[in-house]
Amino acid sequence: MDVIELLPRLHLLRFPVGQAYLWHDGAESTLIDAGAIGAGRTIADALVALGRAPGDVRRIVLTHFHEDHAGGAGEFAALSGAEVLAHALDAPFVRGELTGPPPRFEDWELPIHAEVSRHLPRGASVRPRSVTPVSDGDVLDFGGGARVVHVPGHTEGSIALFLPGEGVLFTGDTVAASPVDGAVMPGVFNLDRPRLVNSLRRLAALDADVACFGHGDPVVGSASAALRKAADSHPATG
Q: Average per-residue pLDDT in the chain?
């Protein structure tokens, strides 16, 4: 795993598939997404390398239930004592009470998904003991007040997190950056692509300077302009 400082208070944790983020408020930290199965110990080691401890992480906020984002949540929560939060619609899948619906793949996505799946760890994930549900408009106690933005489409309960005072936006898989040229684009492997595109347009209306994606390089500087360009190239529906 690579650990990259994006801002003095923000680190990117890059896994073989996907990525997570650490936001720091003084001695307290927040983890946004938690990697795949087995990532909990790797995240704990990364914190130690940064001069912090796993117990400094007070909360793990999951942008959605997919295994490359939520698979490590239970393991890291057990190591750190952190609270796990997810949208109410995705929380039952994170807890393992229900099996989440699979994406509706477009034909061109199938070979990409097959390749990604080869790099995901196998086995059963450690489920969080509890998951605190969040909803659109909730304000979480980090980053000066992190606003929950419900962005359905990738999953029914997908969320983004916006820190208005910091100009930082965590999009989850609603938005991605192309591995080829870094262009900002709608996320792939969606439950409902038209709804996802509408959610992208909602995020593009926010005044974000930094945009942190679930896959692909973040945009550091003038992120809202990049999001608007991506939204303008994909007309809203519905």
A: 95
> Encoding tokens for residue 212?
């942190």
**pTM higher than 0.90, yes or no?**
yes
Distance CA 57, CA 94 (A): 19
SS (H, E, C) the chain: CEEEEEECCEEEEECCCCEEEEEEECCEEEEECCCCCCHHHHHHHHHHHCCCCHHHEEEEECCCCCHHHHCCHHHHHHHHCCEEEEECCCHHHHHCCCCCCCCCCCHHHHHHHHHHHHCCCCCCCCCCCCCEEECCCCEECCCCCEEEEECCCCCCCCEEEEECCCCEEEEECCEEECCCCCCEEECCCCCCHHHHHHHHHHHHCCCCCEEEECCCCCEECCHHHHHHHHHHCCCCCC
CA-wise closest residue to 21 among 37, 3, 45, 8:
3
Q: What is the pLDDT of residues 44-60, one digit of tens each?
A: 999 999 999 999 999 99
Residue 78 to residues 13, 72, 73, 133, 150, Cα–Cα distance (Å): 19, 10, 9, 18, 27
Contact 61, 91 (CB under 8 A): no
- Residue 58: which of 86, 29, 32 has the closest Cα? 29
Residue 175's pLDDT is 98
Span 76-94, average pLDDT: 98
Q: Residues 114-147: pLDDT tens digits?
A: 888 888 888 778 899 999 999 999 999 999 999 9
State residue 236's pLDDT score: 57
Token output for 191:
């439950």
